[in-house]
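G., the chain you wanted modeled:
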Amino acid sequence: MRVLLTTYGSRGDVQPMAALAVALRELGVRVRVCAPSDEEFARLLAGVGVEFVPAAEPVRAVVTGAAPMTPEALPQRAAALTAAQYEAVVAAAEGCDAVVATGLVPAVAAARSVAEKLGVPFRYVAYFPTMLPSPHHRPHALPGRPLPPDETDNRVLWDLTRESFDLLYGPGVNAHRTSIGQPVVDDTLRHVFTDRPLLAADPVLGPWPTGPTKPKEPPYPSDAGAGPAVVQTGAWILPDERPLPAEVSAFLDAGEPPVYVGFGSMPMRESADVARVAVEAVRAQGRRVLVGRGWADLALIDDQDDCLAVGDVNHQALFPRVAAVVHHGGAGTTTTVARAGAPQVVVPQIVDQPYWAARVAELGIGAAHDGPTPTFDSLSAVLDIALSPGTRERAATVAATIRTDGATIAARLLLDTVARKDAGNRPAPSPHSHPRSEPMP
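Predicted structure as tokens:
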């Protein structure tokens, strides 16, 4: 059996796919991962022995470019990405028995078109609950499409989001589908998210919401209360066996545990002095500092020996040895910190990060910064919470509950679905998109 895993996104999108690839390989499956052509992703996948197929342009150049994309340019950009990703994925998927996709909406739509072309099962995966429709949470506003601030009915908000998907992504997706001889879709959100998506999030950190609302029958999502039939597997965690660099180990051994500050794939455009603010706030707590360079290219602010700048290091080995972690709130980083039992301060920037910030605060394992731009005073206030003994005790308690088998659960589910498809148990065609292949049951 051969499976294609595909995404167009940052490391937070690619690394869980690498974890699933390793889990599938352990079950005897041949796997390819189609991801952005960034060198760091090629190294990541080579490091675990997974075949890498580069797709489209490097995503880091897009994220950190001098001129962020305007909302007006999004539909055209989405159309171009759909076409480019399709070409990469259709070549990578040759001979595959299933396609699993995540990342930017146009890239997922392209992957589903490839699955239809091949007549194989398709699965969409989300890494956080609020990506998927539910009456129990609000959607995320899309570029140029703000949600009405006075609307509190989540069903209404999800219907508005469905309209925004059709306006922003629908034209490009349908133009491409027409060009390759596939029928147009009349519900872009449902087409991309499918009726039975996977949720690769830890059930303690990011539980799928439930409540008194009784799910209704499709069509979906004309009434967003129906929602998709979400299958939560747990987070897909890639074991990291790399030793810490000698200079990092020496720094850790030279004094009390430091505070790690890093914002991963976030360029931090609105916080030009974030390194200075963070270092000064941590020093005011009497702590040393590890500065993670990340895509924001953070640097030391002076030559004092209480700070060290680090690049791509093994967070699974590092975070158990720090006093706290200040980060952007990506799903992967939040999970890694929680699993390490380290208190965390989340400075959320975009999309899912406010959700993870809120969950960290609700669980008592850290603090949520109010907004994306920290000041000395605002960061000091949340550091006070994170560095308190009670927070560390709570973080250690929650760490013991974090599951590590999510990728294995997903891999077994995928194999079972493909086996049932081969036995002739194919799901019925969608009344909305009429594809030749449907999301896996």
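Confidence is low (pLDDT under 50) at residues 212-225, 425-441.

Shout if anything looks off.
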